[in-house]
Amino acid sequence: MRGTPKAISLPRRLICDLMRASMDVPFVSLSRSLHIRPLLEARAGAAAPAGWAAMFVKAFALVARDEPILRTVYAKWPRPTLYELPKSVALVAIARVEDGEECVLPQRIAAPETMAMAAIDAEIRRGKTAPIEDVPMFRKIMRATRLPWPLRRLSWAIGLNFGRQRGNWFGSFAVSSVAAYGGGELHPVTPGPFIVSYGVVEGDQTIHVVIRWDHRVTDAAPIARVLTRLEQVLNTEIAAELRAAGPKPIRAVGT
User: Fold this and answer.
1) Contact residues for 122 (Cβ-Cβ < 8 A; gap 6+)
2) Is residue 190 part of a domain?
3) DSSP, res 73
4) DSSP string covering 202-237, please?
5) 49, 89, 147, 236: most buried, per Cβ within 10 A?
6) Could you tell me where the DSSP H helices lie in the chain?
7) pLDDT of residue 189
């Protein structure tokens, strides 16, 4: 059978490199439906509510502020160690279309726990619409992806295996979801150490959340507690920030 050979684009080459870097990570996952009625009520009353990705980025970062294990990465060099980062760094999977091809690029958001949710949302939206060269993380990762294979492999090895560089290149956690396209239980793969995915809001005011993590960093019991804490933060601090941003204007009813 004769097919048509196609060149691998830079965004697709990035995914190939990412999958190769993820192969040796011993991931396990835990999923749970979170009850988020207070969050939904606050979001429904907000004039310009942040997107779901922004809410999960800030909520997870707020939990990680008090849970150092969520800011810990596994690093191999100069010797295998667990390296605790001083702050969270989120990588958000951004779906884009480049040169007619659908692709995913990682938008980096440093210290989201200190940012207003509107600012986090603006960074995510900028990653969806701005030219690649105008987004620092996209520009950086595409520059590395253009390198010849030996140099590319070296740059990935440095970014993956030194604790400080892990935070710069791959962050302390990632957020990815297909909820905007109809949902589904997504189990994404990255070099880790933590990946958060969420589904669509169900009729019983719950949302399904999956956390995948590097088992070298922590175990299931702490992650179970993290999911409980994540539910609390979404319904309290995140809901409060939505309410503080201002209610929807009341439309006058004609008589």
Assistant:
1) none
2) yes
3) E
4) PTTSEEEEEEEEETTT--HHHHHHHHHHHHHHIIII
5) 89
6) 10-22, 37-44, 52-66, 117-129, 136-145, 149-161, 163-169, 220-233, 239-244
7) 84
- CB-CB contact of 171 with 108 (8 Å): yes
Residue 181, both tokens: 């396209």
Residue 21 located in a structural domain: yes
Can you give the CATH number for the domain in which 98 is found? 3.30.559.10
Q: Which residue has the higher pLDDT, 247 or 151?
A: 151
Residue type, 15: I
pLDDT attached to residue 183: 72
Residue whose entry in the numeric block shows the structure tokens 């596994």: 74
Which pLDDT tens digit goes with each residue over 61-105? 999 999 999 999 999 998 999 999 999 999 999 999 999 999 999
Residues 6+ apart with CB under 8 A from 254: none
The reply to whether 216 falls in a domain is yes
Q: Flag whether pLDDT at 119 surpasses 50.
A: yes
User: 167 pairs with which residues across the strands?
Assistant: none
Range of the domain at 75: 10-243
Instruction: Count Cβ atoms within 10 A of the Cβ of residue 53 and give its class: 0-12 exposed, 13-18 middle, 19 or more buried.
Output: buried
Q: Is residue 152 part of a domain?
A: yes
Q: How confident is the model at residue 250 (pLDDT cuts 50, 70, 90)?
A: low
Q: Is residue 8 helix, strand or coil?
A: coil
Q: Give the chain's domain count.
A: 1
Which residues have C-beta within 8 Å of that of residue 24, sequence separation ≥ 6? none
